[in-house]
Amino acid sequence: MESRPRKLLDQVRDVIRMKHYSYRTEKSYVAWIRRFILFYNKRDSSEMGATEIEQFLSYLAMQEHVAASTQNQALSALLFLYRAAFSYSSDNVSGD
């Protein structure tokens, strides 16, 4: 019997739980990652990087008028996705 690859958000949840993050952090990160994926019409997030993250964060600030703390929360979730879930080096995606 073939096993299907696990969905990205399930993989993210697994990594969050392995790192013993709080349930609230898990919910928040998964929600931001989902929103990022939907923003790019379900484009494969492993093919995106710093440019797409910057565009998404700019959209949040300019169009959605989110607070800086909200924007930082979204950034933290996306950095987690790329650093922990995809195991990218910080050279590919930075928090600067």
Describe this structure in words.
It holds the Pfam family Phage_int_SAM_4. The protein is mainly alpha-helical and 96 residues long. It has one domain (8-85): Tyrosine recombinase, N-terminal domain (DNA polymerase, domain 1, Orthogonal Bundle). The chain is built from 4 helices and no strands. The N and C termini lie far apart (45 Å). The mean pLDDT is 87.
List keywords for this structure.
single chain, mainly alpha, DNA polymerase, domain 1, 4 helices, 61% helix
Question: Radius of gyration over alpha carbons?
Answer: 13 Å
By helix and strand content, what is the structural category?
Answer: mainly alpha
CATH topology title = DNA polymerase, domain 1
- Stretches with pLDDT under 50, minimum 5 residues: none
Mean pLDDT: 87
Main β sheet profile: none
CATH superfamily: Tyrosine recombinase, N-terminal domain
N-to-C CA distance: 45 Å
Q: Could you tell me the number of beta strands?
A: 0
Task: Describe, in short, the structure shown.
The protein has 96 residues and is an all-alpha fold. Helices cover 61% and strands 0% of the residues.
